């Protein structure tokens, strides 16, 4: 008991400082945090980019999930420092909350978005497994106490008893979002993701159920919500990035298909085998990162299978698909016609004619049907809580409003060289029209 207590409370002899372009400095005082950062599972996050293929659109976006994880930890550390003096904050939650902040993205795979889609994986499940399984992270956490890994996992899983702690890691105004918006804006170089985080941290107040915002800070929150809205449409859903993701998804689809049809690979996808077979141990999952994926893509350019080699070459050399707005629900006949023409031209429509949709809900409140989200609350001067959109006309205007868009992706370069002139002309004619 004495030893365990001392590990939980153990402070480093000297504070460790990481230079960070977004928060200037990330400070580590706790031995536990320092030991967690050194685990192979945390270090793996250096080899997974925060924004996947976005660097093919915004070349600066090379930052990793490791950067982001340290950033979320640092924001939570600063929030706790401010809340520590308040009676609503339970001092015993400090370390477990910092650990959850640092480890919340541990289960992300390479190019998460496309990877999870093709293999029906869920990074949140892997985060839980890495924290609770036989890993370096689990060993460090278990040294604090037997229940400690489960507590960290419960916070990330949003089932923890202390709702205030959960709200710092996941809510509509949490450390995770604040970090990724600022960080992604910084590395992409766009100006719209910026908001005054220092101000938000100053006006954040603890209540037993969640963190709330002192009403005088409302404009900083409005700015944050608008930043998020802008970032989704300008960066996260950028059509060029989506084109790269479409190609990624189709490479994974093709490899899976070839593997299942006993195709003889020149470069066997050994590290993917258990994923294809849906027998994924934590070790298999942890062995995958973006360096591994890039290695295979390099090699698969030279496969005999034309579709795989073409798609791999496209991704490696950024030869992306072109796109156009396409409301497929009203124009399903045109899509069917295009598929037929592609097949006639010898271009497989399953891989080369792709509808991709994006959807975002910038802010939401509880709905009577049980849907919706936990809203952001403003704390008025009389301590009464008011839901943000009741008070802010700007936020009210986007509350509960889903924005959706659909695009059709296709390889213009392959269409240009179709030898059957009649088919080529028909395809080009269809693609020259508007389908909104
Ligand atoms: Ni995150």
What does it look like?
By secondary structure, the chain is an alpha+beta fold. The chain has two domains: about 240 residues, Orthogonal Bundle (Hypothetical protein af1432); about 80 residues, Growth Hormone, Chain: A. Helix content is about 55%, strand content about 10%. It contains 24 helices and nine strands. Helix 6 packs parallel to helix 14. Nickel (II) ion (NI) binds next to helix 4 and helix 11. The site of nickel (II) ion has 6 residues, from helix 4 and helix 11.
Name the features.
436 residues, alpha+beta, Hypothetical protein af1432, Growth Hormone, Chain: A, four-stranded mixed sheet, three-stranded antiparallel sheet, 9 strands, globular, binds nickel (II) ion
Provide the gyration radius in Å: 24 Å
Shape: globular
Mean pLDDT: 94
H/I helix tally = 24
First and last CA, distance: 66 Å
Which topology of the largest domain does CATH recognise?
Answer: Hypothetical protein af1432
| Level-2 CATH architecture of the largest domain | Orthogonal Bundle
Classified in CATH, the superfamily of the largest domain is Hypothetical protein af1432
Distinct small-molecule ligands in the complex:
nickel (II) ion
Task: Find the structural class using helix and strand composition.
Answer: alpha+beta
Q: Summarize the amount of helix as a percent range.
A: 40-55%
Q: Which regions contain 5 or more consecutive residues with pLDDT less than 50?
A: none
Q: How many discrete domains?
A: 2
